[in-house]
Design brief:
The complex is a heterodimer of chains A (about 230) and B (about 240). By secondary structure, chain A is an all-alpha fold. Chain A contains ten helices and no strands. Chain A has one domain: Orthogonal Bundle (MetI-like fold). In chain A, helix 4 packs across helix 6, helix 5 packs across helix 6 and helix 9 packs antiparallel against helix 10. The N and C termini of chain A lie far apart (about 50 Å). The mean pLDDT of chain A is about 85. The longest helix of chain B is centred in the N-terminal third of the chain and has 33 residues. Chain B has one domain: MetI-like fold. With about 240 residues, chain B is mainly α. The chains are: A mainly alpha (about 230), B mainly alpha (about 240). At the A-B interface, helix 1, helix 4, helix 5, helix 6 and helix 8 of A face helix 4, helix 5, helix 8, helix 9 and helix 10 of B. Chain B: It is a multi-pass membrane protein.
Chain lengths: ~230, ~240
């Protein structure tokens, strides 16, 4: 088995198999952009849905100590489940669809976001809250105008980690045929170890993650002009 | 409920456990790959982390390393190593997983060493301890909780991501899931998912217990993700996707 494997790799090496090939990228541009589009759509949807679910959960968990324990405990368990197993749990019910991948990704981003949202809300100083109440702020206005802005750094840190993680995790969606750029990675592996395709997918993922992180960092700067800029 | 019954039937059949490339053989391979990956990462990351933490240099490097590593999909590196002359199989898997196990151990060791009270370090120097004694007798014991957090994070992550190796013929328990997907046998897909998830949860519990034994009286809090500490240090539990 092992000998066969080595022999096969040597056979593949005998033919030119460069790590990167511009002609591969140009001649397959449309399919690469297609996979990239799926990758971006899945990531954006997963993080947005995750944030929409995480905010009320964090608010609930903050309201009562009894809820905070189970919410954090459950989130830890979900985060421990490997992505391959998560997609395999969901796939029998939703089939080989992008929905399967989306459900798994939402769960992971939810776990990251709920914890950071809760940390952010808890970091609002009690006297600030008291002062706002004393000035006649109702609970809705208090949340929107005082607590959310103060919790924003923790929120944004969570969004950045969730986004970068989701970009990387989306690749595992190949197991149901919807892995975005991951399709290129596994596609190249299955196409007789075609390195140019593998590296294009891998580098694309890393660049996408770094770009998303950069965009969110910029958004954070714009949203929190009052924050100290100690480090870049 | 047919699926659950199929999964149960699969798991309840002793032949599925003991046969060639059965659950037990794949589990053994999974654990061997994981253990060697963590060992390789320990040998590389622990001394470097201790050195950097002791001298206080390379903080920016460890932050950058742990941030960038989070952006690299595990699947990408598993595949890239599989198409080098190493060839696909357990060796390529072990190397790829070890690479991902380095950042959590390195970062946490560095942060652990940096967060040791400077007065303690000064006092041990004043008592005539050599550099090596300061590291091994003063800084390392005090940094143990964070070092253990790093080892725990790395180990659980390796055990969890080793499942992905099956996508590139790298061995391990994930093979049950990939094979069942190929055969469109969703009962077995569920059974495989259950086994892989259970292994990850058990390894988390085992490492938490180990950390508790090594550092008595310490409680582990739920850290938020990606938050910097007041000193600008990187997050202690370097979370990356599994």
């Amino acid at each position: 088995m092992l000998n066969a494997a080595t022999a096969e790799v040597r056979a593949a090496d005998a033919a030119p198999n460069p790590w990167f090939d511009v002609s591969y990228v140009t001649s397959n541009w449309e399919s690469i952009v297609g996979y990239l589009g799926e990758h971006v759509r899945l990531t954006v949807a997963a993080v947005l849905l995750g944030a929409l679910i995480a905010l009320p959960l964090a608010l609930l968990a903050r309201r009562s100590r009894w809820l905070a324990g189970p919410v954090l405990g459950l989130s830890t368990v979900i985060y421990t489940i490997p992505s391959l197993a998560m997609f395999a749990f969901v796939a029998p019910f939703t089939g080989l669809t992008a929905t399967t991948v989306l459900i798994g990704l939402v769960l992971y981003s939810l776990v990251i976001l709920v914890r950071n949202f809760l940390t952010g809300l808890q970091s609002v100083p009690a006297d600030v809250r008291e002062a706002a109440r004393g000035m006649g702020y109702g609970s809705g206005r208090l949340l929107w105008q005082v607590e959310l802005p103060l919790a924003l750094p923790a929120f944004m840190a969570g969004l950045r980690v969730a986004t970068v993680s989701t970009v990387a995790l989306t690749t595992v969606g190949v197991i149901v045929g919807h892995g975005g750029l991951g399709q290129l990675i596994i596609g190249g592996f299955n196409a007789n170890f075609y390195r140019a395709e593998i590296v294009t997918g891998a580098v694309g993922c890393v660049l996408l993650a770094l770009l998303a992180d950069l965009l969110l960092a910029g958004a954070e700067r714009l949203l929190t002009p009052w924050a100290e800029r100690v480090r870049a | 409920m047919n699926l659950l019954r199929d999964a149960w039937v699969y798991l309840n059949d002793p032949y599925n456990w003991t046969r060639d490339r059965g659950i037990l053989e794949l589990l053994g391979e999974h654990l061997r790959i994981s253990a060697s990956a963590v060992l390789v990462a320990l040998v590389v990351a622990l001394p470097v982390g201790m050195l950097l933490g002791h001298t206080g240099r390379g903080g920016g490097f460890t932050v950058a390393l742990s941030n960038v590593s989070r952006a690299v999909p595990t699947l990408a590196l598993l595949t890239v190593f599989a198409v080098t002359p190493i060839g696909f199989g357990p060796t390529a898997t072990t190397i790829a997983l070890a690479v991902f196990a380095v950042p959590p151990i390195l970062t946490n060791t560095y942060v652990g060493f940096r967060s040791v009270d400077r007065d303690v370090v000064e006092a041990s120097r004043a008592m005539g301890m050599t550099g090596r004694q300061v590291v091994l007798r003063a800084e390392l014991p005090l940094a143990t909780p964070l070092v253990m957090t790093g080892i725990r994070t790395a180990t659980v992550q390796v055990v969890a991501t080793a499942a992905l190796a099956a996508l590139v013929a790298g061995g391990g328990l994930g093979g049950i899931i990939t094979l069942a997907f190929a055969q469109q046998d969703y009962g077995v897909v569920l059974a495989g998912a259950f086994l892989v998830a259970l292994l990850a949860v058990l390894s988390e519990a085992a490492l938490a217990l180990l950390a508790r034994l090594v550092t008595p009286g310490r409680r582990f809090a739920f850290p938020a993700f990606g938050m910097r500490t007041a000193s600008g240090a990187p997050p202690s539990a370097a979370a990356r996707p599994r």
